[in-house]
Design a protein that fits this description.
The protein has a 4-stranded antiparallel beta sheet. A 4-stranded antiparallel beta sheet has the order 2-7-4-5, with no helix packed on it. Strands 9-10-12-11 form a 4-stranded antiparallel beta sheet. A hairpin with a 2-residue loop joins strand 9 and strand 10. The protein is built from 10 helices and 12 strands. The chain is globular, with a radius of gyration of 19 Å. By secondary structure, the protein is an alpha+beta fold. The mean pLDDT is about 90. Helix content is about 50%, strand content about 25%. Helix 6 crosses helix 9, helix 6 crosses helix 10 and helix 7 packs across helix 8. It folds into 2 domains: about 150 residues, Jelly Rolls (Sandwich), CATH 2.60.120; about 90 residues, Arc Repressor Mutant, subunit A (Orthogonal Bundle).
Length: about 250
């Protein structure tokens, strides 16, 4: 069945936003390489040490990326991928045959898959692709450094404020002077994203409610004092801009 034009156009726009250095013709070629894959919530996209056959781009949904402990049972979540984020790039760039991390969906997710040989051939034809890939990897380094620092020195309240700002940027909508965010995942997953227990998360949410920063109903969080939330996040404009770009 021929691909519908609106779907192809959305794919083209997404790739153009990820790779701004590429020409319209190059984006068109890259779009034609992509295979669209759908996963339901909780499905494994790639297992750690499985064969790395290419790169995945998140077109919609949310993905967690992590590693197993030495015993093979303990898992550590390293990062979360929102729309426009990539998985599997490290294995392709380093010419490694296996994924160095696992990836699993947190909600219904659509991915664009680019086979590694096609991507490497495309890179040889359009070396400006490396500019955009370098920028993406640099952002990841910045965010991993920020996460390591904040996990060690900042409170759960500060980190929750920052996460709510990021979720508001991607999933929120302005309604009569407030920002309404329908959380895309359950609160247990939010706690996992922060690296804290569900009980710690609920205590932080309660403090935000008591201070009239947010109102909560089920998975809906209404931010009624955005300036207060930004102040509690304790983050510079530079890091805030990076967070807004990636989640």
């Amino acid at each position: 069945m021929p691909e519908r034009w609106p779907e192809r156009e959305r794919r083209r726009e997404l790739l153009a936003s990820i790779f701004p250095s590429l020409t319209v013709n190059a984006i068109e070629q890259l779009t034609a390489m992509c295979l669209e894959i759908h996963h339901e919530a909780g499905e494994l996209i790639a297992q750690e040490e499985s064969y790395a056959s290419g790169v995945y781009v998140v077109q919609s949904g949310l993905v967690k990326v992590g590693k197993y402990g030495s015993s093979g049972a303990e898992k550590r979540v390293l990062r979360f991928l929102g729309v426009g984020e990539l998985f599997g790039l490290e294995a392709v760039v380093l010419n490694h045959s296996a994924h160095i991390q696992y990836a699993k969906t947190l909600m219904d997710t659509t991915l664009l898959f680019i086979e590694r040989h096609n991507l490497l051939s495309f890179r040889n034809e359009y070396p400006e692709l490396c500019t955009d890939l370098t920028r993406w990897l640099a952002r990841k380094v910045v965010m991993l450094e920020l996460k390591l620092t904040r996990d060690a020195v900042e409170t759960t309240d500060c980190n929750l404020a920052l996460l709510l700002l990021a979720l508001a940027h991607n999933y929120g909508r302005s309604v009569e002077g407030v920002v309404v965010v329908d959380l895309p995942v359950p609160r247990r997953t939010i706690a996992e994203m922060l690296g804290v227990s569900l009980e710690s998360l609920m205590r932080s949410m309660r403090r935000f409610r008591d201070r009239k920063v947010i109102v909560t109903t089920g998975r809906r969080v209404t931010i009624i004092d955005l300036d207060n939330l930004k102040e509690r996040a304790r983050i510079t404009p530079f890091y805030h801009s990076i967070i807004q770009e990636i989640l």
